Structure formats: C-alpha cells, structure tokens
Fold this protein.
Amino acid sequence: MAATDPDKALPRVKDRRRFLAGIARTACGVGIAGLLLGLLARQGGARPAWAIRPPGAGEEADFAGACVRCGLCVRDCPYNTLRLAELGTPVATGTPYFVARDIPCEMCEDIPCVVACPTGALDHGLTEIEKARMGVAVLVGQEDCLNYLGLRCDVCYRVCPLIDKAIKLEKQHNMRTGAHALFIPTVNSEQCTGCGKCEKSCVLEKAAIRVLPTELAKGELGAHYRLGWEEREKHGGPLLPDIIDLPDRMPGVAQ
Amino acid sequence: MTDNVPSASRGLLARNKWLLLRRASQLGFLALFLAGPLTGIWIVKGTLASSLTLGVLPLTDPYMLLQSVFAANLPATTALVGAAILLATYALIGGRVYCSWVCPINIVTDASHWLSSRFDIPKGWQPKRSLRHWILGMTLAASAVTGAIVWELVNPITLLYRGVLYGVGLAWAVVLAVFLFDLFVSRRGWCGHLCPVGAFYGLVGRFALLRVNAASRAACDDCMDCYAVCPEPHVITPALKGAEKGHGSVILSSDCSNCGRCIDVCDRKVFEFSSRFAQATERSPQPHRKAA
C-alpha cells in the first residue's frame, strides 16, 4: 500500500469507508425488513381453532412452507367448502381453510382438493378420505347438549359419515329422572376425520360439538405409562405369576 | 415530453404500440384467470403462484417454489414440472418479460410513474439497483429460518391476483401502498429497486435470447426520450452510446424488462426487438442531430 503517499492513500481509505458503510447500511436495512417478515411468518403460524385445514395438510409449520397459496384446492372443492384466507383475517394470508359451522367437508371419495394440490402441501399419499385427520370433534358444550339433558337429539351421531365408529352413543343412567337413560355422543378420536358435519348440524344456536385441531383436542399419556389391564391382555395372563395373595384385614376382627 | 419535430409523423397508435400490447397482455392474463369464476368457462385455474391451464398444463412460480425449498420442503412433481416450464420459458424470452407483460403491479407502478412525472413530484429515495438482490437473498434466508414462504405474506402481485379471484380482504391496501410508495417515496422504487420477484426473474433471464436492440443507433439524435420513458434507464447507455467503446447494440442487461417503451417513443426508430446475437445495422453516422 502506498502509505508513504498520503495524497493517494487518503481517497482510497475514504472510498473503502464509504463502500463498507454502504454495505452495512443495506445489510442492516434489509435485515430489519427480514426480521419483520420473519415475525410476520411466525405470527401467521398461529392458526385460530375454528379454521380447519383441508384433508392431507400436515403440521401447521410444514404447511406454511409447502403451500404456495394458489387456490387450486379451493377451485376443485365441489361443495365450496374451502376458501383462501384473505389479508387481514387471523388465518395466514392466502392459505386454504374451512369453517365447519359454515360448510363442512363432505369427504369426497376421490379427494379432489388433494389431487389438485400442485406442491404436495396436501399430502398426495392420502387416498382414503377416512384416513384424513383434519381435526377432532369434541363435545365441548356438555351443559347444553340435548342428549346430555336426557333428550334424544342424536343429530351429530346420525350425520356422522362414520356413524358408530367416529361417534357412538353411550348409555348412562339419568340421575335426574332416576328412570331413564342418557345417550351420550362420544367421539373416538382414532376414527374421527374432523370433517365437521356434526358441528354443522348441531341444532343448538351455537354448536355443542366442535371440531378442534388435534393438538388442542387430545391429551397424551406419559410415555412410561402402562395400563395394567392392557399389559395383562397382551401377556395373556397376569404378568407376575404366583403373586402372593395376602389375607385381607377386616375391621374388628382379631388377626 | 415528445415535443420533437417528427413525432407528428407517427400516429398515437404507432407511438404506443408496445405499451398497448403489454397492457392487453397483462389484462389478458388476468382475464384468463377470471373467466372461470365469472363465466364458468375454466381456461386457467389458480393464480400466478401456481396454475393449471386447460386441465393439462401446470405452471408454478419458480421463485415461490425456491422459497418453499429453502423452507425445507420437497415439492411434489407437478410443482417441479410447472416451475421448470416457466424457468425455461423465461430463460429464453427474458426473465423480466414477467414484469412488463404479466405482472399486474406493473400497471399500478406505471400509473404512479405517469402521475409523478406529470406533476413533477420529486424522485425521492433512489437506493442502489442491487438492493433488490439483497432483498431476494433476505427472503430466501428468512424462508430457511422460519420454515415459511415469507415473501407470500406481503407479495403484492399474488395478493392482487388472489384478491381479484378469491376475495379481496385488505389486499387493496397493499396495492395502494405500492402505488403511493412509488408516487411519493421513491419514483420507480418498487419494481426498480425493491421487488425480489423482478430481481429473481432478472437473474433467470440473464442469457435470454429475446432482447431490445438499438440497431439503428447511428440515427440517434440524443433527444433522450428513451431515457425518460425507460424504467431502468441505465441499461440503455452501453447499447446506444457504446459504439466507440466496442459495445454491441443489443441491450444485454438483465435489468431490461423487454417492455418495448423505447421502441415506441423513438422517432428515429433506433430500437427494435431482436435476438441477443444481432448486430447493429451500422449505417454510416449521419448528421441527424438537429441543426443548432
């Protein structure tokens, strides 16, 4: 470097400084824009519970990276169930969803929405609609459900495309009358596709049964839990043979 | 602007030929998409992000798909084929043909530019052209970090298309923001300096065959009309004025969007569309300059 010649060195240093400052300015400006976009993306991942994704949509985080928001699934839905989220609504903009209480999924056998998806955001491996898991129906409004009140509404049960599999009526004693039965609509989460027909047809002003995202609807046992009766069945008998049966201690009886 | 003598020699149509064709093309694409929902005749389904034409031809925006890949997602074959078709097309005819012949936002920013020059509104903020490449890189990085297709959250192009085709929501506000940004904050700012979609297609069309050629550059009379009308005026200089430096007459910069406005406005008929390998028809330089 021509450090001996200050007249030549100085402008070069200035140029370099200006160049680096320019780069830093651009990088910072663009970085801030990127941060805002990233935050927006994170926020968009928080899907409201009433917005149900079409069949075959994976985890919400994966869906945001796979769906290009083209709306081809919306176009091929024969029942106008699906819609694209408009800008300014709580659902990530441009992504497809449906509201069960408005128009539920009719569970087409050929699943046209999945077939239409160009990117595979709706998993093309899903070929049987009964295997779709859009969410899980939960009877959240027990206090108002007519069947819980001892009446025979049964509508959610009757409309369920997987009647007696996804929703069963389980008999309980009616404590109020003392003489009748309650027919409790009971959802089997392993069978329920989350189509939302039960929620749509619930006769109450506001549905007592609603489809919720699976992660909201279900609990989970600790991985170390073993249910004794299941283990016993698997084993085909008691796991500990010859278990010592101690005598029961009865009150008031001298041992 | 074109108060030079010979402009009367060409009619209004001739002076706006490519502009009118472009508007027809931009609106035509929108009409193709709109025909389905409006009339029930389905020619093209979907949006510019991804579409299906006549039930057979899949097309997918390669930039969108690239973000998806950066978001650690492997797209299905349909999308990959669709993106490959578009990539090949734009690589051939010029990437930024998308900007000037397809993109609906171009109409918005052109309107903004028309107003801004009409009322002599100051140019405002003029960042470097390279800023859009930074933004392009940023969207890919942000996609990788968040696992989402981030530019889709704000992309006015697809927001506008989705708004028109599926329900508008607040999409109009974003389009209005782009219009006002170009009008008051930065003239030609959005398409020329910020939009990463244009930056991406510019890179795709780097070696495109279809180019604008200043074929009769010897006839140029320095009226500057082409510079005034060009959205990326820096691309003109090497081709138009580079004869002495040995530059060819073809505009090779990937920033050129092949909009053809220079062809329209030039009364000397200097410009024409040609292949990138074309030569100037170097006539002997004629004293075309206006008499002093």
Summary: Confidence is low (pLDDT under 50) at residues 1-6, 284-292 of chain B. The radius of gyration of chain B is 20 Å. Chain B touches chain A through 59 residues (CB under 8 Å). Chain B is about 50% helix and 5% strand.
